[in-house]
Every structure is written in C-alpha cells, then in structure tokens.
Amino acid sequence: MIGVWGKIFINAAFVCSILAAVGYFLYSRNDQNRYFRASNWLFGLQGLFLIIASGLLVYIILTHQFNYYYVFNYTSSDLQLKYLVAAFWGGQEGSFMLWILFSFLIGCGLMKWTRKPYRGPVLLFLTLTQVFLFSMIAGIHIGDVAIGASPFRTIAEAMPNAPFIQANPDFVPTDGKGLNDLLKSPWMVIHPPILFIGFAMMTVPYCFAMAALWKEKYNEWIHPALPWTLGANVALLTAIFLGGYWAYVTLSFGGYWAWDPVENASLVPWLLGTAGIHTMIIQKKSSTSQKASIVFALLAYVAVVYETFLTRSGILEDASVHSFVDLGLYTQLVIFMVVMTGICLAMFAWRYKRLPSQQRESKLLSREFMTFAGAMILFLLALIITLGTSSPIIGRLFTANPTPPEISFYNDWTLPLAIIAAFFTVIGQYLFWRKQDAESLAQDLLLPVALTCVATLATIMIAEVYDLYSMVFMLAGWFAVIGNGVIMIRLMFKNPMLIGGSLTHVGFGLLLLGILASSLYNSNLLDEATQTYNAAVEQGEMTDSEGLPVRQKANFMQLKLNEPKVVNDRYLFTYEGYTLEDQERPGQQEYRIRIESLDGSGSTYLYPQVYPLSAASPGGAVQWSVDPDVKTGLTSDLYLYVAGSSYVERRNEQIEEQKKAGQQTAATPDTTKGQELALEEGEQIRVGGFDISLESFNQTSTEGLPDSTMIAVRARINVRHQASGDAQTLRPLFAIYTNQGKSWSYSPPQKLQGYDVSFRFTNIDPQTGEVTLEVEGIDETYKEEWVLVVAEEKPFISVVWLGTFVLMIGFSISIFRHWNRERRKE
Amino acid sequence: MKPKVIIGIIAIIGFTTLLMVNFSNSISTYTNFAEAENRKSAHVVGKWEDSKAYGFSVEDKQFTFFMEDEAGNVRKVIYPKPKPNNFEQAEKLVVIGNMENGVFYANDMLMKCPSKYNATGEEAQFKPAEAEKS
After folding, report:
1. CA A178, A183, A188, A194 torsion: positive or negative?
2. Percent of chain A topping pLDDT 70
3. Cα A45 to Cα B35: distance, rounded to the nearest angstrom
C-alpha cells in the first residue's frame, strides 16, 4: 500500500514539475506575476510531494519491507541504522531522488533571491532539469514503453519472469541482499549527498546562462551566478576529496586517484565550473569574455549530464570499479543528454550574432589574457579527461573493442598542462591587482622568483631529485605556492576578504607539490630476501621452478607469526596474529602487524582486515575482500594490506571440503585416533598452534549419568589459538560406571568451537594426578601461520590533502565575498 | 586572414592531432592469445581453464594458471602477485600483459565476478524462504 502512495506522490511531483515549467515559461514570456505565483506554488507542491515520497522510501527501508525491490536489493535486516539511511542513496533510483531534493532546495533559494529579468527563465530551466530527473524514477508503463524505474517497485514488478514469482506472485523474501560490503563505510553516509549537492548547484550557472541568452542581458547574470558556481565548486571538490580519501583508505589500489571513470565524472564538471569562475571574474572586472562565461556555464552542466549518462547507462560496466548498472534507462539518459545539449546549442546559435564580442584584443601581459588562458587550460584538461573517459565510445574510431586508456595517457597530458597553469597563476595574480608593464612586473616578481629558486634548489638537494621533468614540476609547484603566497600576505594587510583567489592558487601549488612528492617517493616496503629476488629479476637471472624466466618483480612479502623481519633496513615488521570479528562484516579477520623503527623511534601497529563479501555467489563459495590500514603521518604514510593468509587458505580448504563431502558429511566414520596429551594441574603445553593448559579437575555430580556411575570428574582446560588469540574453556567429562560387574569409562568428546578439534578426557593417574587428554584434529606438527602483506611508504600524501583543504578554504572565502557584495545591492 | 588566426588554427590542429594519436596508442583492444603474440601489450579476455594445475608458489612469488581465451586458445598465465581472493569464482578474466615464448606474463588481472546486480545471478540466488530454512 505504501508503495502505491509512494508512486502516486512521485508522479504527482512529476506532474507538478511539468506544470511549474509551463508556468515559468509563460511568466518568462508575458511577465505576468500571476503565472509566477502559480508556478511557485506548483514548485513548492512538487517539493512537498517529493519530501513525502522520500519519507515513505526511508520508512519502507527502516521497516525492512523486502517485498520492495529497492529495499530488498540494497538493505538487509542486520544493517546498522546509518547504513539503512545511506541505502536511500545506495541505488540509482534513490540517488536520483536525492538529486532532485537538493535541486528543489536550491530552487527555493533561487525563487527568493533571483531578480528580474532572470528569475523566470532561471526557474524554468531548473524545473526542466527536474522534469528530466523525475522521468527517471516515474515508473510509468505505456504499452511496452517504460518511463523510469520507480524506487517503489515491488519484486514482482521488477522481475516478473523469475520462476519463484510465477509460482507465487505474493512471494516476500525473508531478508534483503544487503548493502555492498565495499560501501559499508562511514564515507558512504557523507560522500554521495555532497556530490549531489555539487551536481544540483552546478545546474544554477547553466540556468543563469540560458536566462541571459533568452533575455539578452549578457552582463548582469554573472553577479548572482558567481557565488552559486563557487558553491558548486566547493561541494564538488569536497566530494572529490572524500571519494579520493575513501578509495585510499579502503581499496587496495594504493592511492588517492586512479583516473577511474567515476572519479573523472566528478572532476570534469569541477574543471569546467572553475574555468567558468575564471571567465566570470574577468567579465566582472572588465566586461569582456561574455561569450566564454556563457559557454563554460553551459558546458559545466552538460558535463554533469554526460557523466551521469556514462556512469549510469551501464556503458562503463567493464571499465570502472563502481559504476551503476543499467536499469533500462539507457534510452532515457540519451534523450536527456541530447535534449539538454540541443537546447544549449540552439539557444547559443540563435543568439550568437547578437552576443557582445570583444572590441580590442587584450595584451599578452594583462589580467584578462592571463585569466582567460587559465580558463582555457582548465577547459583543455576537462577535454582530455573526457576523451579518456569516453574510450568505450570514442575509442571505436581506432579499434573494435576499445579498452580504457593507460593511466599514463592521463598523466602525460594533464600534468604538463598543470605545470604551465602553475606559472600562469602567479603572473595572472600579479597582473590582477595592479596594471603592470613587463618592466614593473619583472621587478615585482624578483622576490618570489628568488625565493622559489632557493626553495627548489634546497628540495632538489635534500630530496635528491635528478630528473629534469620532476625538477620543472617542482619549480612550478614552489613558484605557485610562493608567488601567490606573497600576494596573499600583501592583500591580507589590505583586506582579508580579498585573499580568496590567491589562497586558492596557493592550494593549487601545494596540490602539485603533493602529487609530485607522493608519486615520486612512493616505495614498496620489502624484506631483504624479496629485495634480492627483485634485483635478480631485474638482471634477468631469475627463473621459476619450471625454468621459465621471471619478468616481474614482487611487491609483497611473507610474514610468519611472531617472526620479526627487517624491512628496507629501517623497520622491523612482526605479524602478531589476528582476531576474528563478527560485527559489521561477519567473518572479518583483523590482522595485527607491529612495525618498529630500527632507529629506536618507537613502534606502531597496523590493523589491516580481510572479510568475506556477504553477497556470496551460489554454491557457498566465499569471495574475500581486503581493507587496508593506513597510518597517517605528517611527512609520510604507512599503507598496508593483507594479500593472503594461512587463515583464508584454511577457510577456503574447509569450504572446498564441505562442498566435496556434500550430503555425506554426517556419516564420516570416526576412525582417526588423536594424539594423547598428559597434563598436570597448572601445566601448559603448546601443540600445533594451540596453547593448552589444565586449570583443574574436580569431582562432579553424577546427575544425568547412569545410576551405576561410581565417579564423575570434570577437567577444566583452557585452549588458546595462538594466531587469533581466541581462548576457550572446555570442561570434558570422565566418568566410571559399572555394567554387569565390570567397570567402564565414559569420556564423551567436546568440540572446540569454530575449529575441527575435539577433546576427550580419558584417564587420571591416581598416583601422580596426571590427566590424559585425547585430542583429535590437531596435527602434531605445528602448522605455520603466515600472512602475505603489501606494504608501502607514501610520503607527503598529507600535502595533497593540505592543498585540497586550502583550495576549499580559498573558494569559500570567495563565496562569502561575492555573496555579501551581491546581497548589499538590494 | 591575420597571421595570429592562422597560428591559432595550426596550434589547435596540431594539439588535437597529437592528442588523438596519443590517445589511440594508449588504448588497447580486447584480444586473444594468438594476436597478443604480435603486440607489446594486450588485454586478453577469457576463462580459467580449471582442469590444469594452478596455484601460488611462495618460492617463485607468482601465481600461475591456464586460461582459455575467447578464440579457444589455452595458454599459461603468470601473475606476479598472490592469487586474487575471488579467483575461482570469476566467470570472466581479463589479463593485461604480454606474450613471451608462449607464456602470458600478466601485469594486471581483472575479474568479473557473478555480480549481485546481474539479472541472471539475481534470480539464481533467490530461494523461496521455506526452502532456505530446511
């Protein structure tokens, strides 16, 4: 029933948004306030319905109504509250809803703050984007054509052909499939909402640009649009940062950026938005670049739509680790993209001739030229990244089954451009605050150039950087930091609100230095044996056991339990065991690796994890996933994950055996005899990876035993698995009873929980008080406990984060400045 | 035409050409072992050939297995890392590397596992609630 209401509310909101769009269109044409008022009501109503529908979706998620496909597919009854809430945006349908929700809130702001003549068209285009987004979740069927996939679909509607649905249409699963384990991270709660705030805000400059084209007012729109664009930028940057950090600490690819299509999807709109910010600022200062501002504002949104298409249409399914799967929205997404781009192109072409163009050309050494050049570099970066991301489509020009480009393609093209941009930022900033000719500029630049040279030379000497490219890269980074830093300090004395721009560019410089340092000095931590092995591989001297030459170096090493190993001549690594944890992820092991500095500066622990994915494939096989641990430091991070362990191997063997044994498990004959252990009270022995100690043995009541029982004794033994530290106390029984004049002993086996091990108490020596235990399932030879670890030292990642934070702060200061100025006008 | 415009056009064409040439070189195509012989680097798609011996050797620090590509060629693959944890479950493998003496040296390996999103896998996972309890 709730589902029906949910669908009704979504579609009511859908209809309201269409009507509101029509109303805003009429208002934009006729300028009659009654249309505006009516549309605002419709817009508000649409928001109200959407909020109710969202509430219903949250309700069915929280109450575990698994007859709904969305609830079944993304949640399970054991999911923690925070992940239940996060499941709202865990799937495509819900994330579209969240997107519209933010878009609605932004629309309310625009309604309040936007002035004539822009407000009609701005709201029209905003509502139009919402109409398209609503169509993705409408779930209307007209004949064979389905429009959108409703989050309130029932399982029967989602999979009408499934055999169990045909057998029983009212079938309700007992539990859901749960949230993907990779998404069970606190970052999941915060990263997607911020990303959608960014996407929703990036719509605003697009709306203003379209309004400017419609109303042919090409100058004033940037004043209200600029703070919104800056806001969108901060939101996207925060989302990109959170995504990068999330990937770094929970995925095993070992970095913060992998040029994954989904990462690129948020970066490209950010780059275009930033380009737009640059041209808007020049336009504000000197009334040029009107065309460029409009083009970038439009492109930034088109990029959002295009990237939405790429990540949600299933076209990247092979290329990305985390794109969505096609929900049958492919055609709709194509229409969305084509219509949006088409409207932009049509509007632009229609007005093209009447757009103001620049009368005289800017000089090379002018703030206009420099800032515009910055925007163009950002645009080129966006273009290159879009090209790479589109390889499944554009790659077909060159080859039949294109793969994604190599990482080096992105690095080779974007980094040199970033280096050029770094030099431009300083010159641009010096020209921005004062009109200068070449001579005065040179004079002004003397100080930062000198400082940069000192800093660069010092770094080159200390860090022993000898290749030319890295040197230039470093020079660019330092120049951007120092040059912009000098300006910032000067501005700070004049008016602290003005430092937004220079601070942002300092952040950019820091980011470059961080990227350089972290990629240059990223080193694998290996023990001596592995290093020797790698040296031999490099010489081409290594052959494997079959005589084949070995070509590839190893990046991992084996650590045995409690056997310290010297690593890179600087650390001592010790594997100290694991604990089994059953909280968030059942069956998760947390390994304990102790890392000691050989120079005596202390030690630290890392706790990497391995866990089975809950979405196990049919047949009971387990897929293991790893979660690295990172020890963050000011100058260097230690990064480590477990690539394999004796525990995982044992578990896999057990599962394999269970599978083989199949039905006959119950009937295994008990023929194997275990080993006998003799223990005195208080004695402890180590057998096959276990510590076994006899605490005590006491006579116990004979209740529940045969009447003829003469004596019953229970021992209290403590068993501890060395690697996991798992300790259990067992109380095996030893009883003697008489039957037909003879005495018999009775010693039932007691199982050790979680292991294939059992204990029997078989005898007591009355003289010595020694107890005999028969143990089954423990090998007499000690089974080695080991882990394979991949450890890396990653210096200066902190500088990457620092650069990102400085960028965010710089942009935020600019938002306040431009927003306050805009408010004061009223 | 002004010389500036001509220089601009040449620069744009030059940049675009260079970019596209570099792009076309950096993308590869999904191929098979036979064709990989002639390439410096190849992405080969295939399935694990589970009837032959496979495994990770701690001494050799590598994981070896046999893979059957989509054209039916079976080749030995050497992967210089521990066995990926979900290797056996993968229904499709993509190995990225190069052929040498009939052996494929993979630098990277992608596994396509039966996805929980995949429609067929989804239905296979479903069991009526009663059956699950028994």
Report:
1. negative
2. 93
3. 61
Bridge partner list, B93:
B46, B111
User: Nearest CB to B88: which of A164, A551, A621?
Assistant: A621
Whole-structure pTM value: 0.85
Instruction: Specify which residues A644 forms β-bridges with.
Output: A788
- Compute the distance between CA of residue A641 and CA of residue A608 in angstroms, rounded to an integer: 5
The number of residues making up chain A comes to: 826
Q: Are A734 and A763 in contact (CB under 8 A)?
A: yes
Q: Please report the pLDDT score of residue A354 as a whole number.
A: 84
**Which residues on chain A are in Cβ contact (under 8 Å) with B129?**
171-174
CA A680 distance to own-chain centroid:
55
Burial of A520 (0-12, 13-18, 19+ CB in 10 A): middle
Q: Is the N-terminal amide bond of A117 cis, ω within 30° of 0?
A: yes
**Hey, which residues does A558 pair with through a beta bridge?**
A788
pLDDT, one tens digit per residue, over A346-390 is 999 998 888 887 766 777 778 888 899 999 999 999 999 999 988
**Measured between beta carbons, which residues in chain B are less than 8 angstroms from residue A626?**
85
Give the residue from chain B lying closest to A530, CA to CA.
B61
Phi, psi at residue B76, to the nearest 5°? Answer: -80, 140
Cβ–Cβ gap A401/B122 under 8 Å? no
Q: How far apart are CA A701 and CA A692, in angstroms?
A: 25
H/E element, A161: none
The answer to whether residues A158 and A70 touch, using CB atoms and an 8 Å cutoff, is no
Helix (H/G/I), strand (E/B), else coil: A737 = strand
A648 CB neighbours in chain B (<8 A) are 85
Q: Are residues A778 and A757 in contact, defined by beta-carbon separation less than 8 angstroms?
A: yes
Phi, psi of A509 (to 5 degrees): -60, -45
pLDDT tens per residue across span B10-25: 988 998 888 888 888 8
Longest dimension (CA), chain B: 84
CA distance A107 to A127: 8
A706 DSSP assignment = -
Q: Report the distance separating Cα A505 and Cα A705, nearest Å.
A: 83
More confident residue, A210 or A670: A210
Smallest CA–CA distance from B102 into chain A, residue:
A548
The rounded distance, in Å, linking the Cα atoms of A459 and A467 is: 13
Please report where in the chains the tokens 């269970």 appear, as a residue: A658
Tell me, what's the ipTM? Answer: 0.77
Enclosing H/E stretch for A740: none
Closest CA to A721 of A636, A783, A644, A677: A783
CB contacts, 8 Å: A380 with chain B: 15
Q: Are strands B74-79 and B103-112 parallel, antiparallel or unpaired?
A: parallel
C-alpha–C-alpha distance, residues B108 and B46, integer Å? 14
Q: Which residues pair with A763 in a beta bridge?
A: A772
**B131 pLDDT higher than 60:** no
Calpha distance A230→A211 (Å, rounded)? 19
Interface contact A177-B125, CB threshold 8 A: yes
Torsion angle (degrees, nearest 10) of CA A130, A133, A135, A137: -130
Q: Could you tell me if A325 and A371 are in contact, meaning their C-beta atoms sit under 8 angstroms apart?
A: no
Contact: A384, B19; criterion CB under 8 Å: yes
| Cα A204 to chain centroid, rounded | 26
The one-letter code for the residue type at B59 is E
According to DSSP, the residues that pair with A645 across neighbouring strands are A787
Query: What type of residue sits at position A242?
Result: L
Inspect the interface and report whether the beta carbons of A615 and B116 lie closer than 8 Å.
Answer: yes
Q: Which of B23, B113, B124 lies closest to A409 in CB terms? A: B23
